[in-house]
TrEMBL record:
Molecular function in Gene Ontology: metal ion binding; metalloendopeptidase activity
Protein name, entry field: Peptidase M48, Ste24p
A single GO cellular-component term on record: plasma membrane
Gene3D superfamilies named in the record: Metalloproteases ('zincins'), catalytic domain
Length: 498
């Protein structure tokens, strides 16, 4: 850190002084084109020195709460656990605890200046609390207190401030060089000045990330010594799986509901998503690969999962009785907490609560809108059995529906577009014929009517890929009684009028 700031200040002063001397020499001795060239070099040197100086000026630490704050008054059971673990690890509990929309937990120190006079802050992910048991959450919290124990949060602000200054210096010099691209001499000087800082940045990141990995091992040791190895190991595995799945859950399940001004129970939905057969199988495969083949990158902040597990299991650990209760039971009034989280997530939008089983009904207007869009391009008399599947026909349909030239659209992109359109069109047809959509997070939306059940998602994808033959496609829609269901405007209007 001291080395970088010394280098930066020396470089800045040297460039500004060099620019002054070169400029003075040039004005006194140079003439013609040489005068212009040397003045450009001097100007670039001076500008580069000022860019470096501006980049290393410390920025004010403005802390934005990452989520709704939890208090001991509202969450007495959780705070009892936090205070008990703080005492076990010999640490002061955090001043502020926040609920965050993630499968993660963290501690930091915010406020003050460069870590001095700061307050301890903890973040607990609602996704994390919903997938861990009580003992596993205790181990995770003990791990976080291990960062306090090791002084990591005191060192952190210095590392992060220095890292930010290095990155700003490199970025600002690069941006200045790009902005001066038309003046080749200036751009060359600025990029040349930036090169040593790029090399320094890479070395600094490798060193500090190695320190971060060592800090993780040390914090794991605190968790093992206070909560036992079994709880930490299982907590690490569940956190790894949950972290891989949470973004997919938000993008595919939760996000679309929020866009439609609805919200369903986050914890319940995420647990069901993780338990969906296809999701569970994929996560199992990824975990197996990580445990057998996981490799460490020099720029990783955390060691590979298998190395952390191996390290935890190698430590002397006390026997600790396992509390198998779901960790979410430590929270009071979970629906209210989720509502607060959703409110912050959506900037205070008014959301209507809905059950996951009914959530598919939210998309009916979108399906019907897609049917109207498709009707601009479908031939009169089109039914599910006569939907176009060949590439030329799909190009023609896409051009009519979107109003854009599709001649150069790649075939796989065209197929993806058609898959999305057909899925929504056929979903609208199913609803219009009395089928009820139902949704289980992590699984395709299914439609039922009496004993009949159909999943158009798998049918459409397989059919357009050529994996499902026309005969099987026809049989599915005949069984649903929709083989001759009209899709085109006049037919639809007549059917709805009848």
């Amino acid at each position: 850190m001291v080395l970088f700031f010394s280098l930066a200040l020396t470089a800045s002063a040297g460039l500004v002084y060099g620019a002054y001397e070169l400029g003075a020499f040039t004005l006194e001795h140079a003439r013609g084109r040489g005068l212009v060239l040397l003045l450009l070099v001097a100007g670039a040197m001076g500008f580069g020195g000022l860019v470096i100086l501006w980049s290393i000026v410390p920025r004010i630490d403005r802390f934005t709460p990452p989520g709704p704050e939890l208090t001991a008054k509202e969450q007495p059971v959780l705070f009892q656990e936090i205070h008990r673990i703080a005492e076990m690890t010999g640490q002061q509990p955090p001043t502020h605890v926040y609920l965050v929309p993630d499968v993660n937990a963290f501690v930091t120190e915010r406020g003050g200046w460069m870590g001095l006079g700061s307050q301890r802050v903890m973040g607990l992910g609602l996704g994390l609390v919903n997938i861990l048991g009580v003992s596993e959450l205790r181990a995770v919290i003990a791990h976080e207190f291990g960062h306090f124990h090791g002084g990591d949060t005191k060192l952190g602000p210095w590392i992060y401030k220095t890292r930010g200054a290095i990155i700003r210096t490199v970025q600002n010099l690069y941006a200045a060089g790009e902005a001066s691209a038309e003046v080749g001499t200036v751009a060359f000087v600025l990029k040349a000045v930036g090169k040593p800082f790029e090399w320094f940045a890479k070395g600094y990141l490798r060193i500090t990330q190695a320190i971060s990995r060592a800090q993780e091992y040390s914090a794991d040791g605190v968790a093992v010594r206070t909560q036992g190895a079994a709880a930490l190991v299982e907590g690490l595995k569940k956190t790894h799986r949950g972290g891989l799945a949470f973004s997919a859950f938000v993008d595919s399940e939760l996000g679309p509901l929020l866009e439609n001004k609805r919200h369903a129970p986050l914890g319940e939905g995420f647990r069901r998503f993780l338990g969906a057969p296809s999701v569970a199988e994929r996560l199992g495969q990824l975990e197996k690969e990580e445990l057998s083949e996981g490799k460490q990158d020099p720029y990783d902040t955390h060691p590979p999962l298998r190395e952390r597990i191996r390290h935890a299991e190698s430590l002397d650990a006390p026997w600790v009785a396992q509390d198998m209760r779901p960790a979410v039971e430590l929270l009071a009034d979970v629906p209210q907490l989720e509502a607060k989280l959703y409110s912050e997530w959506t900037q205070g939008a008014t959301l209507t609560p809905i059950d996951w089983a009914e959530s598919a009904s939210v998309f009916v207007p979108d399906w019907r809108a897609a049917l109207l869009d498709a009707q601009r391009g479908l031939a009169h008399g089109t039914t599910p059995l006569t939907l176009p599947t060949e590439t030329p026909a799909l190009r023609e349909l896409a051009a009519k529906v979107t109003g854009q030239d599709t001649d150069h659209v790649p075939e796989d992109t065209l197929q993806q577009w058609a898959t999305g359109l057909y899925l929504r069109v056929l979903s609208a047809v199913l609803v219009d014929h009395g089928f009820t959509p139902s949704n289980n997070p992590g699984e395709a939306i299914a439609f039922t009517r009496g004993e009949l059940r159909i999943e158009p998602s798998s049918l459409v994808r397989s059919y357009l890929r050529g994996e499902l033959g026309r005969e099987a496609w026809s049989a599915s829609w005949q069984e649903a009684g929709l083989a001759d269901a009209p899709l085109t405007p006049a037919d639809v209007q007549q059917r709805r009028a009848g």
